[in-house]
Amino acid sequence: MLRRNIRAWSWRGIALGVACATPLAAAAAQRDAQGHAWWRHAVFYEVYPRSFGDANNDGLGDLSGITQHLDYLRDLGVDAIWITPCYPSPQVDFGYDVSDYENIAPEYGSLADFDRLQAEAKKRGIRIIFDFVVNHTSDKHPWFLESQASRTNAKRDWYVWRDGKGPTQPPNNWTSIFGGSAWQYDRATQQYYYHAFYPEQPDLNWRNPAVETAMLDVTRWWYTRGVSGFRLDAVNTLFEDPGLRDNPTVPGRNAYGDQNQVRKYDDNLPENHRVLRELRKVTDAHDAVLIGETWTDDVQQLKAYYGANHDEVHMPMDLMFTGLGRVPGGHQRLDAPTFRRHVAAMEASGEWPVYVVSNHDIPRVATRFADGRHDDAIAKAIGAFYLTLRGTPVMYYGEELGMQNNDPQRKEDVRDPIGIKGWPTEKGRDGERTPMQWTAAPDAGFNTGAKPWLPVPPSARTHNAQTEGQDSSSVLSLYKAVLKLRHENPAVREGGYVPLNEGDPNVMSYLRRYRDAAVLVVINMSGEDRTATFDLSAQGLRGAAGRPIIQSAASGDLSSVKLGPYGIFIADVKTAP
Ligand code: GLC
Ligand code: CA
């Protein structure tokens, strides 16, 4: 059921503000005791604004709906929320087609609502990260409307316009990530414009310095208004080969019927890195952070996004992590050796990892790994695992509830255009974007008015924040406990990663070790009962005593742990005096 393609782009087919008295912009860089910037130990949480909370009951989430739920986020242990695009937009790609970068979409509220959200979040120690759609604008953005007006318009060169190869023939064979040719013909000016995504998302021409200036100014504008950083959308597609060489083709067709191709000339060009360095300079001047939507094939490619001199993206997301353990048919399986190998490769890279298990473009993690028998236990095991690794995690709303996909059953119900185009192979991304499940009430307490824009699944009756909040064995309670540990325990926050029992095919075990403190994490990645035994003397921890902190279907001590299917055992290790 996973919908992936070849190559790097593999996600489917292949505060100033009135209320902010001290703008963060002016604040001195905030560092922890170890000299790390604020984001190093923050927990990030992705909010899809259309689906989080609907304050005005019109069926669509909004900024005030986020404000209403800030206490929940604080209690969960969230330090920063990344809000996917909430700028004015025709909503062809649900906000990733921006028609005004310096405003809020009316259906989501106003700049005043943003200021309120920002101020209320700040009171709770939560920062706001915005989503910066750097690669393209909406075809309704005034820049594009001008660009399209005539071949001689001053903004013509803000986008990528080219003559066709011949009548009715696009400039080359490049295909859009969302299907079909990446070139759209404009009848009036008789040229094609390039779009890596939908035709309604024309690519900006980043070779034009005026584009760069305008876009850097957008980031300054929001930093001054109080955002603490940006998640950079689609950073691998900023540049295209100036010679427009055809991409090599490979056998097979994708869900849209296009011949598969290796994205050699339209993806991951070296020029991307120069732009990232410019964005970084502005970001660092505001003590903010850049998170990258960095789809890569391997750790070396990911490493490049940090910058050779650590002068590019602070937090390039490890999206490879979302694809680990895939089995034929597309499903995923918790596979200890695979996860162990990947974590080891990230550790060896010398970079600060940014693990991610789900987002608004891929099916929910609880669905991808579900076995139908231990779904909640699996959801807990995944949370306990990636949230206790070294690095900064980025969560996705509802993940902490074990929320599952609610995919459309009929083509006529699909809202995401790629799901209409690719049906039934590609059902689109609606399933992972359904309303946040707050309560057991109708429509999961998302609102009390109009039907939510996407349907709530029956499982919301059991999997919701209120019900799970009252159950100490819920996925939510496990997430809360682990996030608390992350914030409070120096070994989990700061410590190194020490793999244990590396030959064990089923149980993933490691220490997080900081000075003389350590935490032992043991996770059964199989559906059978398992026992793991330890000899910590090799770690200089002979005679150490353990105090279990988190146990889920597990019991034991530092020498031997018994685990039920997907059981979790986390213990504080006290070294003998
Ligand atoms: C990114 C976004 C995705 C969007 C695409 C085009 O991949 O995460 O949702 O459709 O960019 O902007
Ligand atoms: Ca609303």
Would you write up a description of this structure?
The protein has 577 residues and is α/β, with parallel strands linked by helices. Among the domains are: 142-194, Oligo-1,6-glucosidase, Domain 2 (Oligo-1,6-glucosidase, domain 2); 496-574, Immunoglobulin-like (Sandwich). The protein is built from 14 helices and 18 strands. The strands form four sheets. A seven-stranded parallel beta sheet has the order 11-10-7-3-2-1-12. Strands 13, 14, 15, 16, 17 and 18 form a six-stranded antiparallel beta sheet that branches. Strands 4-6-5 form a three-stranded antiparallel beta sheet, with no helix packed on it. The model is unreliable at 1-27 (pLDDT under 50). Residues 54, 56, 58, 60, 62 line the site of calcium ion.
